[in-house]
TrEMBL record:
Keyword field: ATP-binding, Nucleotide-binding
Highest classification ranks of the organism: unclassified sequences, metagenomes, ecological metagenomes
Protein name (record): Uncharacterized protein
PANTHER family tied to this protein: CELLULOSE BIOSYNTHESIS PROTEIN BCSQ-RELATED (PTHR43384:SF4), SEPTUM SITE-DETERMINING PROTEIN MIND HOMOLOG, CHLOROPLASTIC-RELATED (PTHR43384)
A GO cellular component annotation in the UniProt record: cytosol
Molecular function in Gene Ontology: ATP binding; ATP hydrolysis activity
GO biological process: negative regulation of cell division
Entry keyword ATP-binding: yes
One family name in Pfam for this protein: ParA
The UniProt record lists the keyword ATP-binding: yes
Species this chain originates from: marine sediment metagenome
């Protein structure tokens, strides 16, 4: 017999679909595309968790009409709760739950390696088939690692030179980061 703690440490038995939505530049619509994608999946009868991993500039909850989430990713990162599923918030859309990002605490903006790995490990353990991750802009290791945990990545770009240049750098750095992780001893 397994305890509830042991059950929560298992990887789900179904094939999880994790999609990360990213890009090199802020303001291109990553959060809106993440929210719309999640809503459309729920309309198809899928159960979805939407994660706002834009830790320093979380605003995904606003796209779903949630004014002030009572619990956020900061509560998990700061170990106020043990399990990532404990920070899930219901959305106004049936079948869609979200994990609101943390934008109010300076020490959360750049989680350390162990905090990030704990978060990534727990994302993969979430007991749901579809996970959409809205990541922040830029090419920091944290941003790239949240992008690379997905089965499929979606890059958002606008038709302006800085956006195109930034998404090119994002893609190039994602590939280099993936190679670096894959080739590490």
């Amino acid at each position: 017999m397994t305890t509830s703690k042991e059950e929560s440490n298992k990887t789900p038995s179904f094939k999880q679909k994790i999609w990360s939505v990213g890009g090199g530049k802020g303001g291109t619509g990553k959060s809106l595309i993440s929210a719309c994608l999640a809503v459309e999946l729920t309309k198809m009868g899928k159960k979805v968790i939407l994660i706002d991993a834009d830790i320093g500039g979380a605003n995904l909850h606003t796209c779903l009409g949630i004014k002030h989430p009572s619990i956020t990713l900061a509560d998990f990162i700061n170990k106020k709760v043990d399990e990532l599923k404990d920070v899930l918030t219901d959305s106004p859309i049936d079948g869609l739950r979200m994990i609101s990002g943390a934008s109010d605490l300076l020490n959360i903006v750049n989680p350390n390696y162990s905090q990030k790995m704990r978060l990534i490990k727990n994302i993969r353990r979430l007991p749901i088939e579809y996970i959409i991750i809205d990541i922040g802009a830029g090419t920091s290791f944290n941003v790239l690692d949240f992008f690379l945990i997905s089965n499929s990545g979606i890059l958002v770009v606008s038709p302006e030179p800085t956006s195109i240049e930034n998404v090119y750098h994002f893609l190039k750095n994602s590939i280099l980061r993936k190679l670096r992780i894959s080739l590490a001893p």
